[in-house]
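This protein record is not my work; I was only asked to verify it. The record follows directly below this note.
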Amino acid sequence: MPSRSILRTMTNPIPNQSPGQPFGFEADFVSDLRCIPLGVRYKLDSCGVKLKLPHWHRFTLAQRQTLITLPCQTPAEIRAYRQRLRQWVYDQTGEWPTDLAIDPEPAWGRLDQIPASVTAHASRLGTPLSLDQWQALSPLQRFALIKLSQAGHEHRNFALALAEFGLESPKPNLPESVEEPGRWPECALPFGAESTPG
C-alpha cells in the first residue's frame, strides 16, 4: 500500500501533466529507449515510485512506450499508473519498487521563484532566465530544467533544453565549464538519486 503522503498526492496531482513524448534533446536514445525519458520521470514524481535504470531495461520496448504515453494526471490515472508500474517491476524482479517521497509543492510547480541550480547554469551559459520566461514554461519543461541542472547530470543537455524551449539559440560549442569532467551520462542515473551512480 502507498504511504499516506503518496495517497495525499494522488488526490492533488501535478497540474497540467501531459503524457507527452521525449524531448528533442533526448533523441539520441529514442530509438531503443535505453534511458528513462524525463516525461516518465515526471510521472514517477506524481505516482511516487522510484524506478531504477536496471528495472527500466528489463521492460520490453512496448512496455517502455506504454509508460511514456499512459496518462498520469487524474487521481484515478495516477493510481492506475502506479499499480501497473509496480506490478511490472515485481513481475521482472520478484521485488516491489521503493516508494518515492513526494514533495507536495515541487519546485517546478512554483511560479514565484526560479530554483538556484537553474539560475546558476543558465547564467553560466550566458542565458540568464527571467521570472516571466520561467512562468511561461510548462510544468514538464520546468521539471526538465531542474533535473538537468542538478549535480551529476551532463549539463550539455541543459543547454540543448534551453534552446529547445526557445530560451537561447543553439551554440556549436559549449563552454568547457559546462562539460564538467566525471559527470555520469543522463541515463546512468536512477530516478530519485541523480547525484549517485545507479
